[in-house]
Design goal:
This protein is of the alpha/beta class. The chain has one domain: Rossmann fold. Strands 3-2-1-4-5-9-8 form a 7-stranded mixed β-sheet, sandwiched between helices. It has a two-stranded antiparallel sheet with strand order 6-7. The longest helix is centred in the middle third of the chain and has 14 residues.
């Protein structure tokens, strides 16, 4: 991924225009079945903040993004929002959370980068903490608008997580078409 892609105002505007109107309500509901209200949560790659708003109705959410453009845009909308400028590959923060959430935010990472991110997420979670992440379903990679998209399936995700997490749910779902996505909900061992 070009690290500066989302630092460009026009690319951010195009992303917001392209993004489907629906949000991650299904994912938030799944997480809500396993996480107490008012739990602390870190959202990775919050983008325009659709899921951040939904998550904030139930949890104490810290939003984060690698793009300062997204963060600045959201801060104009909500100056009291708890936001961090974070790279989801390295997650350089000393804060800890009860859960970490992303909705298609980790799709640009190579398998090695994603594995390192999962290890760092494990370190940032409180005991019995949860992760819930959604990805495009499949195998391999493709290029879209100068970005690399990395696809994942159930076996791939289970293999990356099995040492440090217990899988609670690993299911396909629809983002834009039936079965085009997969989410994993896992608890820290």
């Amino acid at each position: 991924m070009d690290a500066n892609y989302y630092e460009n105002e026009q690319n951010v505007a195009n992303y917001i225009k392209f993004t489907p109107a629906h949000d991650g309500a299904l994912l938030v509901d799944v997480l809500g079945e396993h996480l107490e209200q008012e739990s602390s949560m870190l959202e990775l790659g919050m983008g325009p903040g659709k899921d951040y708003k939904l998550l904030s109705e139930r949890f104490r959410v810290t939003g984060s993004d690698f793009s300062r453009v997204f963060l600045e845009r959201y801060r104009k909308h909500d100056s009291s929002a708890d936001l961090l400028h974070l790279d989801a590959r390295t997650l350089e923060t000393d804060r800890t959370f009860d859960a970490i959430f992303s909705n298609k935010a980790l799709i640009h990472m190579s398998r090695v980068e994603l594995q390192k991110s999962f290890a760092r997420q494990h370190a940032l979670l409180n005991d019995q903490g949860l992760i819930l992440h959604s990805f495009w379903y499949g195998a391999g990679e493709s290029d879209f608008n100068d970005l690399t998209l990395v696809y994942h399936n159930e076996n791939d995700l289970a293999e990356m997580l099995e040492r440090s997490f217990d899988i609670v749910a690993l299911e396909r779902h629809a983002k834009m078409s039936e079965g085009d996505s997969v989410y994993v909900l896992a608890r820290k061992k």
